Structure formats: structure tokens, C-alpha cells
């Protein structure tokens, strides 16, 4: 009788130990799974993009699907995008395929790479995108990461126009900041026979700065005989400068609250030009366009639309990765603990009853 009871006790102990170990192994295995792949589409007028876990060190990618995080910025037509990257700290190793990289593309297909960032830097970088779509990619190639907290960047929508004030009409822009580019830019060459005029109008107490981001007109030996040229000045009666060919102009600063632009083309074509204007003299928050954008964002009544976060991120992604994994593991741990107790009771009845 005693021997039979001992055999039963050994059998129950082995079964109980196996079930308990198997349960904890499953919990541990589940807890080591990487979080849901990062990246999404952002449609808000302003927003932030951060590496996983920021400002804490980001985890290395465990699965291949997590190695590339892709964010697509898609805003309404007739707008441009300005991206500001204040700092970044990425894992970098000279060995092949052992470095992490932040990539920024000037299109929504992630095919036209504009900038690539490796290592670390604390100097603020501004990336201008002339169209209404941009792509941000974070590529994690390194197998481990110690101490590198990744990046945080912000984006905002600004005014942009490629329309032409033709037939002696003037296209007036009044926003505090924006882009102007030649018709067709950047996807195609400008047409022949253009005669375009733009007026950048600021408040009386302001001045205007113009920075050329790209300038590619048809080749000529002298601007005096150029058929394709751009003029800029404080008045449309006497322009201050005339630009041609592919020599990018210097930064222009107005003497008053107006800047006039005149673009004319002949029988040649090329990529064209792209410039950024900005008014100086009052806070940017007073920008009429930005006010309209803010009201449009507030219309939905949610903070997510102003920050660029997807609606599902407000609750589900507010938890840290560690908290999320702990909660999942605890959900699994509880059933296995209950099952272990039940097995123990059954074994006790089997042995002693």
C-alpha cells in the first residue's frame, strides 16, 4: 500500500512539475515577443514622429518585419511639408549591415531619398518637402543597442503653390511662410512660353526673406540674352535681380513688406525652381494659414489630430512596451497558476483517497 502510494506521488510530482514549467516557459516566450511593428500614415497638419521607446534607448529589431519602420505624411493637395529634426542618436558600427539609419524621402512612395542620418548629432536639421507627401523611415540593422535613444522629429504643413499668375494677372500669397515653385516642379519640366508673376505680401511692419532651395533653368551664356529667367525685387517696376541657368541665387531680403517675382520661359525647358519665403517681424502663430489649419484640426475635437498620432495610439500606445508585455504575461500567468493548483488538488485526491 505504501509503495503504491509512493509511485502515485512520484507520477503526480512529475506531471505537476512538467505542467508548471511548461506554463512559465510559454509566459516567458510570449513576454519576449517584440511589440507591434512601428510606423503608420499621418494626416494631421502637425505631428511628431519618434523612434520606439523614445526618449529611452530603442530596442533592436527581433523580427525581420520590425527592422524597417515607415511613416507616411499625407496632407491635402496644395500644401508643402516642413520637417524639423532637432537631434538624433543612432547605433552605428563600421561593420557592414551593423548600423541603424534614419531616412527621409520627398515623396509618399519612399523612392526619392532626400536625407540620410547615421550616428548622432545635436544640430537642428530642417528638411523642406515641396509636395504634400513625405516618407520617414527608421532602419534597424544592428543586433543590439546600448544607450542610443534614437530620434524625435516634428513636421508641419505650410503653404505651397506652383500655380502661375499668367496673362498679366498677379498671384498673391499672404501666409507667413511657404513655398513657391515653377509650374510642373518637381515631377516635370516647366512649360514653354510662360509669363508668371507672384506677389508675396506681408504686414506693413514686416520684411520678407526668400531662400532658393533648387534652381535649374535652361543653359545660357549670359542672362542678358536668356529666354528663361526669374526676376525678384521689392517692386514690379524695377526688379532688383535677374537669375538664369543653374546658378542658385543668394538669399534675398526685402526692404519692405512686398516681394515681387517674375518668371518667363521661351522655347527651352528644364526642371525649374523652388523657393521658400518667410516673413519676419511677428510670431509665426499669427499666420492666417496656420490659424485656419488649427481650426480645421480642432474641428474633430481630438488632440490626436493636432499631434499627428493615429487615433488608436491615444490609448493602446500610451503604455510603454514593458507595461504592455507585463500585462500580457500576467494574463497568461494567471490561467497556468490556476491550472497548477487544480492539478495539485487532483494529485492529492489520487494519492490519498
TrEMBL record:
Q: Which organism is it from?
A: Branchiostoma lanceolatum (Common lancelet)
Q: Which SMART domains match?
A: CUB (SM00042)
Q: Please state what the protein is called.
A: PCOLCE protein
Entry keyword set: Disulfide bond
Taking every annotated instance into account, which residue ranges of this chain make up the domain CUB? 38-158, 164-280
Q: Which PROSITE patterns match?
A: CUB
Query: According to the UniProt record, where is the region Disordered?
Result: 296-320
Q: Where do the coiled-coil regions begin and end?
A: none
By its UniProt entry, which Pfam families does this protein fall under? CUB
Q: Gene3D superfamilies, from UniProt?
A: Spermadhesin, CUB domain
- Top-level taxonomic group: Eukaryota
Instruction: List where the protein spans the membrane.
Output: none
Amino acid composition bias (Polar residues), ranges on this chain: 296-305
Amino acid at each position: 500500500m505504501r509503495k503504491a502510494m509512493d509511485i502515485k506521488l512520484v507520477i503526480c510530482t512529475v506531471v505537476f512539475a512538467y505542467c508548471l514549467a511548461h506554463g512559465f516557459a510559454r509566459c516567458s516566450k510570449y513576454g519576449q515577443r517584440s511589440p507591434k511593428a512601428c510606423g503608420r500614415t499621418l494626416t494631421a497638419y502637425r505631428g511628431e514622429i519618434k523612434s520606439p521607446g523614445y526618449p529611452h534607448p530603442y530596442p533592436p529589431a527581433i523580427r525581420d518585419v520590425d527592422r524597417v519602420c515607415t511613416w507616411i505624411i499625407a496632407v491635402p493637395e496644395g500644401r508643402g511639408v516642413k520637417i524639423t529634426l532637432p537631434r538624433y542618436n543612432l547605433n552605428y558600427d563600421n561593420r557592414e549591415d551593423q548600423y541603424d539609419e534614419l531616412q527621409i524621402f520627398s515623396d509618399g512612395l519612399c523612392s526619392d531619398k532626400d536625407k540620410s542620418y547615421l550616428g548622432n548629432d545635436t544640430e537642428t536639421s530642417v528638411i523642406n518637402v515641396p509636395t504634400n507627401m513625405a516618407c520617414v523611415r527608421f532602419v534597424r540593422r544592428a543586433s543590439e543597442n546600448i544607450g542610443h535613444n534614437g530620434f524625435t522629429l516634428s513636421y508641419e504643413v505650410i503653404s505651397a503653390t506652383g500655380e502661375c499668375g499668367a496673362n498679366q494677372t498677379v498671384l498673391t500669397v499672404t501666409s507667413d511662410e511657404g513655398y513657391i515653385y515653377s509650374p510642373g516642379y518637381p515631377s516635370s519640366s516647366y512649360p514653354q512660353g510662360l509669363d508668371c508673376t507672384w506677389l508675396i505680401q506681408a504686414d506693413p511692419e514686416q520684411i520678407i526673406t526668400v531662400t532658393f532651395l533648387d534652381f535649374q533653368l535652361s543653359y545660357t551664356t549670359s542672362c542678358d540674352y536668356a529666354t528663361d529667367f526669374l526676376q525678384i525685387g521689392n517692386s514690379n517696376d524695377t526688379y532688383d535681380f535677374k537669375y538664369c541657368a543653374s546658378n542658385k541665387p543668394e538669399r534675398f531680403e526685402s526692404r519692405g513688406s512686398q516681394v515681387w517675382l517674375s518668371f518667363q520661359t521661351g522655347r527651352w525647358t528644364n526642371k525649374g525652381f523652388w523657393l521658400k519665403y518667410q516673413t519676419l517681424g511677428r510670431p509665426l502663430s499669427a499666420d492666417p494659414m496656420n490659424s485656419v489649419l488649427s481650426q480645421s484640426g480642432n474641428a474633430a475635437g481630438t488632440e490626436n489630430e493636432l499631434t499627428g498620432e493615429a487615433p488608436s495610439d491615444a490609448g493602446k500606445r500610451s503604455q510603454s512596451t514593458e507595461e504592455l508585455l507585463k500585462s500580457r504575461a500576467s494574463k497568461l500567468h494567471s490561467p497556468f497558476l490556476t491550472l497548477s493548483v487544480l492539478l495539485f488538488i487532483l494529485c492529492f485526491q489520487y494519492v490519498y483517497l
